[in-house]
Amino acid sequence: MMIILALIRIGKGHSEGHPSMAQISGVPNLFGVCVYSFMCQHSLPSLVTPISNKQRMSALVMADYILILCFYSLLSLTAIFCFDSSLLRDMYTLNFTDNCDVLSIPVLRYFLGLFPVFTISTNFPIIAVTLRNNWKTLFHRDGGTYPWVVDRIVFPLITIVPPIIVAFCTHDLESLVGITGAYAGTGIQYIIPAFLVYFSRRHLEPVLGRDAVNKHRSPFHHTFWVWFVILWATFCLMFVTANIVLTETKN
């Protein structure tokens, strides 16, 4: 809906965006924001599991990622050409609720304005339950059980209180997404998967042998790519940290 509305406005010649070719100053924060694209990987298990014949799995996953990239690119490009960059809101859906000449139907304006609420309301309980279970697993002792207060009160509180505090303390979504995406997101997106691949290969090598070949293996199966991902993650953290420090120094 947002892509179509932006294209209609651009087609009518009412677009306000005149973006420059590139802005090097925005590159450091780009690393943190782009990490959030890993959310598209959440759909991969639901795509892979029902398929019985996995011979063309690599092609299917590649097509899935290309489709996701196309939607990301189309949404971003229509946004920067449709709206003035100085007036572009961090929460993109709000641009359609504030601007009547883009969307004049009140019902649809409210729908787009509340769209993030709908998605977060459905995802937050699932993510919170997963995080609570991870806390319980992290502090679990063999043969031991948690007291009722710890199991039903402490673990849920340490799960939901931090995001509530952050929500009340800041409305700067750009900085929030950049920081969380850079630090927490880099660990989830790059560092943890790289170490999982490295140590799982070391664990399976004596079991399967060095000559075992996985017909579904990635074209990036060489160990070089594991260390490249870790190096890339390190550079991302350095860029984002430098950007945060320089921005705060200027302010």
> How confident overall, as mean pLDDT?
81
Secondary structure category = mainly alpha
Distance between the termini: 37 Å
The unreliable regions are: none
The helix fraction, in percent, is: 55-70%
Q: Radius of gyration from the CA trace?
A: 22 Å
Q: Tell me the β content.
A: under 5%
Overall body shape: globular
Number of helices: 9
The helix/strand series, from N terminus to C terminus, equals HHHHHHHHH
Main sheet summary: none
| Total beta strands | 0
InterPro entries: AA_transpt_TM
Keywords: Glycoprotein, Membrane, Transmembrane, Transmembrane helix
Protein name: Amino acid transporter transmembrane domain-containing protein
Subcellular location: Membrane
Q: Any overview of this molecule?
A:
The structure is a single chain. The longest helix has 36 residues, at 173-208. The two termini are 37 Å apart. Among the domains are: 1-21 and 37-104, no CATH class; 170-251. It has helices at residues 2-11, 27-34, 44-48, 57-82, 94-98, 106-138, 148-169, 173-208, 223-250. The chain is globular, with a radius of gyration of 22 Å. The protein is built from nine helices and no strands. 69% of the residues lie in helices and 0% in strands. The protein has 251 residues and is mainly α.
Question: Could you name the key traits of this structure?
Answer:
251 residues, mainly alpha, globular
List the SSEs and their pairings.
Elements: H1 2-11, H2 27-34, H3 44-48, H4 57-82, H5 94-98, H6 106-138, H7 148-169, H8 173-208, H9 223-250
